[in-house]
Amino acid sequence: MPMSLEEYQVAQMYMVMKMQQQSTNGDEGVEVLENKRFQDDVFGKGQYTSKVYRLQSKAPAWLTTIAPKDALVMQEEAWNAYPRCKTVIKCPYFTKFSLTIETVHRADNGTSENVHGLNEEQLAARQVEIIDIASAETDYWSYAIRSSSFDFPKFKSTKSGHGPLLDGWQVRTLPPSPFSQSRDYIHIWIKLLKASLHLQLVMLLADNCRPVMTAYKLVTIDAPYWGFGYRLEQALLAGERALFIESHRNCFGWIDEWFGLTMQQIRELEQQGDCLLNEKISKLVLLTDAADCEQRFTHSSERQFYLAYSLQPQIDKD
Hints:
There is one protein chain. Helix content is 39%, strand content 18%. By secondary structure, it is an alpha+beta fold. The chain folds into two domains: 252 residues, START domain (Alpha-D-Glucose-1,6-Bisphosphate, Chain A, domain 4); 35 residues, no CATH class. Strand 4 and strand 5 form a beta hairpin. InterPro entries: PI_transfer (IPR001666), PI_transfer_N (IPR055261), START-like_dom_sf (IPR023393).
């Protein structure tokens, strides 16, 4: 991602809030059951959330022939101890199904090895895929999930100056080299790129890339069902991949909306957003009524911030 670790933390939280608002209505969307701080021996301190995702309209046609529409009602638990996070997704209909996403965020451009500490057996089974937010997908899930229309080769943030994302943008994040005035150095650089050896160059100079960071996601899925388990696994993996692309495209595409926000402001927006989500889904779980949301934010500046955010998801800025 073409941003710093600190910027990404804010970008991710803002993106999650806005995408949840956009995808939630009276029948489908996201319901927030819990959102609280936690502390344990594994992650230390962080934020715990429990959510229900109702995704009936996103189900592939073949799945609807063997399961009811509520088969894509998912229960999610997440532990966010940034820069480490873990998400576990289960399905009440397919009780044996589980999907786990373990994420490590690092200030590099994808060159770290085995950041999740896998053993040899796990490494042998692992499949590595590099996701480029500037790519264009054409499979079923990309059409079902994608809604943004950012043109990143022409996109430039007015607030941060980040962008555009040209071909090979991961390499282009390198700052000016002390040898940049050397024609020999430039000639070698161009030859490396033209010879498709830019990966080796990135490996050598990764520590100098600024600003850039990588979200290393380890996705583990298990659907032990005879006859359709493998197909279900592949469908959901493809769905997660498309969601990763879309959500991270939005992280960058919405940069002028979140850039400059503090973590305190983001947490306040998150609490307000939870109230809005549960109102949209026609069920308030943690809050007894909408007045509880009002009582949380009494200052006029906070109320203005709340109104600005609640209206923002209705505006298409792409």
